[in-house]
Amino acid sequence: MRFTDLNPHGGIGANCCLCESNGFRFAIDSGLHPKFAGSESLPKHGEIERNSLDFIVLTHCHLDHLGSLPLLSRQNPDAPVFLTYGSSVLSRRMLSNSISVMKRQRRELNIPELPLYGRGDLSSLYSRMKPLSSESPLTIEKEGRSLELTLNHAGHVAGAASLTIKSKEERSFFTGDLLFNDQRTLAGAKPPLEPVDVLVTETTRGATARDPSRQRENEVVDLIATIGKTIRKGGSALIPVFALGRMQEMLVTLEEAFRRKAIPKVPVFCSGLGMDLVNHFHEISKNSKTLRFSRKVLKLIGARPLPRKLQPGRELAMQGIYLVSSGMMVEHTPSYILASSMLGNDRNSILFVGYCDPSTPGGALLTTQPGQDFEFEAIQWREKVRARIRQFDLSGHADREELLRLAEKLCPKTIILHHGDPAARSWFEESLQDSEARIIDPEPLKTYEI
Ligand SMILES: [Zn+2]
Ligand SMILES: [Zn+2]
Fold first, then answer.
1. Which of 57, 115, 246, 434 has the lowest tally of Cβ within 10 angstroms?
2. Ligand 2 centroid – CA 12 distance (Å)
């Protein structure tokens, strides 16, 4: 196999891998880097000769995997795009939202090249999408050669898949973003355990040790108790979430908590994209063995859309639970604006339920001590930290030890480290030192012969 990581910044961001196996050329994912805008946020598609791909695989619909797929597909119009049925449904809503965000960025950040693609590109992409059932191999033939491709349920988020590629010569497994634990709405991954030649593994949590007392279940209990306490003392709770996956998971968790009276009944406010995706989750779950979800949850908890015009720093009009994106409280998003209104009141809580990159406002808030000033630079607002700030370890990614055990079971000859910051990859490199496998931490844009 030949492998090239086309994410120019390394780490997690504009995910896109170019692979060659048994004479077939294919790309896995094509994302946008969340910290950049415009062409800087793209993978290096220029490394792929135009219309040279035999196919493209999309593992799931988070934008760091999906966001630039319309461009890669436009440059490779003969390549079918293989994905799960769930991803074929979710990608439509995520990509049309991505166009709206890019149009807004064009105005706010003055980047004339935005949006990077339009509605026409989306229609062309959808016509190239070929949904595959999970765990059902597909054989592709070309010039007397063949390659077998299987999407394996990956847990991480609705529609997420790992990928098995098999030829006469070799067998490879790409984890994609992977979670073994069952979530409230989604079954965990059970990857095939046949030995492989090449393992490409995500390493997201490589630098994060899980505190043994903070298993997922305890974290949910603790989160509910903290929301309950906040509401009882008259405050509001802000839960910054990804609109895709984490928001729907939290809706179901809150519904259970209201039913058990663990949280007093208050309004739950949600941002628009997350509420729209609820309908998509509902559709997908009708045909799914792994996703359990009904749109009824919105009615049951009386969810309502977030008020349209949020005023930075202005006291909230209503007590409630605010379940809004972005998960890392990125500038100009509803969670960022709401935090500016809630931070100065000691009855409120801001509760993170996923990973926050240290360079994002969410990451910065998590390291600010109570009583210190916090700067909302993008809206020129400063507030003292009086609200309760907490983070709960409900990650959508496997613990690092679980991924090591997977690597052990698959007995690969080569392990490629992927989808992780440098510190996370280093932990894996050290921890895998005693294994027989050749370990590769690929430099961006360098091609490895395996
Ligand atoms: Zn993801
Ligand atoms: Zn990812």
1. 434
2. 7
Q: Measured in angstroms, how far is the CA atom of residue 91 from the centroid of ligand 1?
A: 13
In SS3 terms, 222-280 reads as: HHHHHHHHHHHCCCCEEEECCCCCHHHHHHHHHHHHHHCCCCCCCCEEECHHHHHHHHH
2-208+396-449 sits in which CATH class?
alpha beta
Q: Which residue in the block uniquely carries the two structure tokens 């996370």? A: 424
| Domain range 216-391, its CATH number among 3.40.50.10890, 2.40.110.10, 3.40.50.720, 3.40.50.300 | 3.40.50.10890
Ion ligand 1 neighbours, Cβ < 5 Å: 62, 177
Each residue's pLDDT tens digit, 366-417: 999 999 999 999 999 999 999 999 999 998 999 999 999 999 999 999 999 9
62 and 33 Cβ atoms separated by less than 8 Å = no
- Alpha carbon of 275 to ligand 2 centroid (Å): 22
pLDDT band at 216 (very low <50, low <70, confident <90, very high): confident
pLDDT for 22-65, tens place per residue? 999 999 999 999 888 999 999 999 999 999 999 999 999 999 99
Residues 6+ apart with CB under 8 A from 46: none
CA of 62 relative to ligand 1 center, distance in Å? 5
The pLDDT assigned to 357 comes to 83
Question: Where do the structural domains in the chain lie, given as residue ranges?
Answer: 2-208+396-449, 216-391
